[in-house]
Amino acid sequence: MTERVEGHGGELALAALRAHGVREMFTLSGGHVFPLYDAAHSTGFPLYDVRHEQTAVFAAEAVAKLQRRPGLAVLTAGPGVTNGVSGLTSAFFNASPVLVLGGRAPQFRWGSGSLQEMDHLPLVAPVTKHAETVFSADDIPRAVTAALTAALTPHRGPAFLDFPLEAVFSVGDAELPAVSPIAPIEADPDEVAKAAGLIAGASRPVIIAGSDVYAGDAIDALRAAAEALGVPVFTNGMGRGALPPTHPLAFAKARRVALKGADVVVVVGTPLDFRLGFGDFGDAKVVHVVDAPSQRAGHVQPAAAPAGDLRLILTAFAEHPGDRADHTDWIAQLRVAEDAAKARDAEEMAADTDPIRPARIYGELRKVLAPDAITIGDGGDFVSYAGKYLEPAQPGTWLDPGPYGCLGTGMGYAMGARVSHPDRQICVLMGDGAAGFSLMDVESLARQKLPVVIVVGNNGIWGLEKHPMRAMYGYDVAADLQPGLRYDRVVEALGGAGETVEKAADLGPALTRAFDAGVPYLVNVLTDPADAYPRSSNLA
């Protein structure tokens, strides 16, 4: 039985949003979207405001990624929407079900030069699954339902709606569409069986599992498949932690050895992009498992490419009825390489040098981070070390910008993570370059009593640019930042707290104070500018 709703455009939108499980709104104040605020305020719907629209979209994306449900950002017309486009694009690359609702200049005056008059759709359509202008209040519940359905349908992604001023301020009367569950995509059973046979029969198989495994709630199915077939597992993005680090099939440090020696590489829930050598694994056969046919790689010819619900596919792998090769020796070989790499890492993470090496920061963080802590990477050089030295113990505890590589996610992701998990540690790992994109939104966190810990690796340069440019040209330009800048004092001025650390021995006590502070707290660590990450990141 459908429900009928009445009210102004904001009330109609909120009714549809609530029906789809949306539980909070992230925004930066703007008159074009006042009715949405009125609907939230009058019904006690949580509303969080920020200092830059990109932060609102990144916060909504963090909610979408961590909770596997829609996240909502509300942006005013014109520059409000354009300031959020990088966030929308990141959500598009990350397959995050984010809905952005935008204000829009009045349609009855279109072309007359109203404040912030702009047609947003040509800008956002290429990076959304659904983009629409809703011209009538009566049509808002239908449009919200259609947008959220598109966002939640694999392959997931963001959606966008904007409302002309007269539409969202008008009173309407409409049926609230029923919320239907998203039907799983059934993969071709022959393709699934072919893939399972290749994995089971391989001498040296490897699984690489990515973010869509978490987004598709297929963590348990992945573990079952790996255990049933005896296949070592590497992870990236939100796939990290899918197998706990102590699991006998969980590997992180031996990836180069594994990919060099594998005869079958199974990539599940992540694209064959630059992070995986564009899918070129030498002579190994490639099995690419994706959640929708649109995600099959066009530049690689895999040996098998089942496309559909990842839980169903991975469960079928686990239940493969055919013969299975013994991979004991292969797993043992990788374990030797893994343990050797861990021993090297342990030495690096204990380095007592002056200036501080980034590895030491992560060595100290490992001592204080709880197993369920949410760690957020926002940076290039400094955060690249996080991918090497931090090993999430649980799935759904790692956030990074993803393959789009957009800096500035930090404070938005922190806000969304804190709202999602009020009782967990939230730790943002931030390069000093990335700090320039979003640090002002510490004020938003402090004002709304959302404590997080921010660790800045402060080497005074753009590390991933300065060293390569100097190697290529013999000089570098536009790659220096102010050395020793007191980012902690910026945070203090914005209502938080912090300190600068120059000695490795002071790291542990500083981090303990940060997590006990109860306010946004920035640990500003002065690191060695000569110690740059030597190879490309595999974070996402």
From TrEMBL:
Residues 192-316 form the Thiamine pyrophosphate enzyme central domain. SUPFAM superfamilies: DHS-like NAD/FAD-binding domain, Thiamin diphosphate-binding fold (THDP-binding). It comes from the Bacteria. Residues 9-121 form the Thiamine pyrophosphate enzyme N-terminal TPP-binding domain. The keyword NAD does not apply. Its cofactor is thiamine diphosphate. CDD domains: TPP_BZL_OCoD_HPCL, TPP_PYR_POX_like. Residues 378-525 form the Thiamine pyrophosphate enzyme TPP-binding domain. Keywords: Thiamine pyrophosphate. It holds the Pfam family TPP_enzyme_N. Belongs to the TPP enzyme family. This is Acetolactate synthase. It comes from Micromonospora coerulea.
